[in-house]
Amino acid sequence: MNINQIEAALSDIFNEPLKDGEQRKIVFWVDKDNEFAEDIEHLTVDKVKVHTLTDSNQFQTKYLLEEEDPTSPYLIYTNMELGVEDNWLADTVFYSKTFYADRISLILSELNIDPSLRAVIKKYERFFNNKDRFRKFSALNIETYSEQIIELSIMSVLCNVKTPDFEEVLKAVLMDTLEDNENKYLSLMEKFFDIGVFWNYVSNHYGYEREKKSLKTLFIHLAITAFSQSVGEENLNELSDFISNRNKTNAVVFIDHWMHHKTDYMVFDEYAEMAEQEIHLSNIINNLPIEVFKQADTFPYLDRAIIIYIANGLVTQLEDYEEYTKLIKLRRAKHYYEKFASVYEALYYTVKIHEFYKEHRQGIPQGRAIDLYQAYVNDYHLMDTYYRKFYVAYDEESNHDLLKKLKMLVENLYTNWYMGELSSHWSQAVESEMTQDWSLPGIKNQQDFYSSFIDSKVRNGERVFVIVSDAMRYEIGVELADRLNTETMGVCDVETLLGVVPSITKLGMPSLLPHKEIDIDTNARVFVDGKDSSGLENRKKILESKVAESIAVHFQDVLAMNKAGRRETFKGKKLIYIYHDTIDAMGDKASTEVYTFNAVETSLNQLYDLVKIIRDDLSGTNVYITADHGFLYQRDELEESDKIGQDAGSSIEVKRRYILSNEQRELSGQLAINLSSVIKNEHQLIAYFPKATLRYKMQGSGINFVHGGASLQEIVVPLLTFKNKRTGQKGAKAIKKVDIKLTNTTRKITNSIFNLEFFQNEKVEDKTTPRTVVIYMADEEGSVISNEETIIGDRPFDNPADRTFKIRFVLKNIPYDRNKTYYLTIRDTETSVVVEKIPFNINLGIISDFDF
């Protein structure tokens, strides 16, 4: 303020109306730094007398105001502190107004900071000389100031932190860059703060006490200190210089909070990778037992080490499959899991394939056709699922050398052992039992689908939806049914149909339509009751000839409609066929067959969405989902030994997996099946199939994805029956998540590191679904004061002991009020809803690090 502004401000004060009992205005102008001592003589305020107060004239001033001139308005100018002690004018000051004109005094006054902190404000005057910084400082709304709060607030403003919290200040500094000379926040603190004070805070909070300080060594110090609390300091002797001697818990919580931040974690991950290379972490970890670091979570190399450990175990045939599975599931709740998710998934399904092999080490036995068929339905199909899921994960990280090694293991067990034995034994059973009559006891034929499942319902006036998914083999249907049972209120049952041979679309699709007879002419065209059955329009006509109120549509058309459009399209229709072909469309082209398994994942989502549309938009309750055929697929290139020469003779159609002919011949390495039990067969056709998984040698399209043969993967056709249930209906079960409950009864914490036990209240099954929660300690304001731990509650075990979780928590090293309440907070990660807050008292006594 200049002298003119001061005169104007003082005039305003003296011109204010007198308060009740006030005879005149007395204003004490405190100019602590004597900035205006020379101007006071020239100051003029209308009708106001000016007097200067010094150490030596206090009594004289008091006498002047009370005895000599008790009526005139006075401006008393002074550079003294107007405290109560040794102040003759204390009572006068009390009922008078105090005015400040120097910058420091104005800051103290405006922020309501006690004058005793003047020296602190003076020290950082350059900071306050900027309106924007002053506004941000004021916006922090500090109620009670101290030197520490002022310092914290200044650092917070400089680092764009919204609250005076040193953890957030330090993270902001580190987030910018670890290069000291380029760090903008360090630069700002050097200009407008005291960089030494910043490093003192770092030392006091996190025990970082190096003579030569740098942000890079500080980050490593924090990370290693946090890491040491998971693996034990005794295992990190080489890194002892980076481990704090005090306040270790603060480092643990600092690192944990940074890792768990929804966006800032990306910078942390980058630094952690740098740090582990700087300290040669791999050399240390590779000499430690897996048990020592399997729970640790600070560095990405930990997951690499665990992945390598499991992979080496598989390569060297160490059959600790249960341990491997537990390790993979344990790591799911850890920070870096997403980074390695595809590798872990590939590893998991490699383990499952090895587990399957171990369970069937005696080999897949030969037997009757029905026994092999049922064994495939009940058990063997799992191997196809594991193989498929492996490649879904593999394709996400296909350049990974480790996955290439896993691929060799997987191909050896799946293609050479499983497919080799199963397909060979099945071919033998077919040859001895099914060449003249393509049927199995107790298994409905695909041709009987409409008459067995649909006809009676339509006759009774019920509305029926049939989804036909091209090439949805049995194991895919099982996965879809599991999802529908878990994620909807409906009930989905799975059974099988014995698919037609050849297992091809143009015969499988008509087999699912209403018909009296199906036949194939000498041009290999398929007719239903004399009508051409190829294509959507022809199938639609066949349906309408049986049921007038019917319709056939492509699934893409249904997905493209809005709700009103769907209701209009299907209004009055009693029989609806929806055709889906994502899998076959991808697999049947040589250029895209490699994406077959990814197409399956897409298909599962599309089919799930179709069922939801039928349920929600069309009020459908009867939904059948089936397929025209399955498929064979292997990823490795086929060898010449996987192909067989074809002696087509006078064949009417030749494909990779079948030959249609009306000549009866004995062909080596091939099955000959009379089609009279499949079609009307006016032309006495015989279908020839290469045994096992062989393909006929021929020019043209893809060879890895095939169908048309008689293998179990091609002819075990899934049939899913989905019945929608609504709330309140008989048999309806609401979908609910499991609960994660604290089992400890004590509600008092006496140690800064403590363990708590949690319990998944039910096993995951049917409509009881998994829940993932994050758990932490928080104060009454909701500020997180501990590390955060994740529990994935997806355990399917009956035994309650197998559904327990022991979790370790670490509290920040801050003062705790034993009379306050703190809360163990359990938050659902999917909804972000806090599902439970459990009150605790914290009484640590003297905070120490002895518990480390």
Query: Which segments are poorly predicted (pLDDT under 50) over 5 or more consecutive residues?
Result: 846-852
Alpha-beta content class: alpha/beta
What portion of the residues fall into strands of 2 or more residues? 15-25%
Lateral strand order in the biggest sheet: 5-7-22-13-6-12-11
* Helix content percent band: 40-55%
Radius of gyration: 40 Å
What's the tally of helices? Answer: 30
Count all strands and give the number: 32
Shape: elongated
CA(first)-CA(last) distance = 57 Å
**For the residues shown, what is the average pLDDT?**
93
Instruction: State the major sheet.
Output: 7 strands, mixed
Strands, helices and their partners?
Elements: H1 3-14, E1 26-30, E2 49-53, H2 58-68, E3 74-78, H3 90-95, E4 97-100, H4 103-111, H5 118-123, H6 125-128, H7 131-139, H8 147-158, H9 166-176, H10 184-192, H11 195-206, H12 215-231, H13 248-260, H14 265-278, H15 281-285, H16 290-293, H17 300-315, H18 321-331, H19 341-359, H20 369-394, H21 401-433, E5 444-445, H22 449-459, E6 464-469, H23 474-487, E7 491-498, H24 505-511, E8 518-520, E9 526-528, E10 531-532, H25 535-546, E11 550-554, H26 555-560, H27 563-569, E12 575-580, H28 582-587, H29 596-616, E13 622-626, E14 632-633, E15 643-644, E16 653-654, E17 659-661, E18 670-674, E19 686-690, E20 695-696, E21 705-706, H30 712-715, E22 716-723, E23 736-737, E24 740-742, E25 748-749, E26 753-760, E27 768-769, E28 771-778, E29 789-793, E30 804-810, E31 822-828, E32 834-842
Parallel strand pairs: 1-3, 1-4, 2-3, 5-7, 6-12, 6-13, 11-12, 15-20, 23-27, 25-32
Antiparallel strand pairs: 7-22, 8-9, 9-10, 13-22, 14-21, 16-17, 17-19, 18-19, 24-26, 26-30, 28-29, 28-31, 31-32
Helix pairs in contact: 12-13, 17-18, 17-19, 17-21, 18-19, 19-20, 19-21, 20-21, 23-29
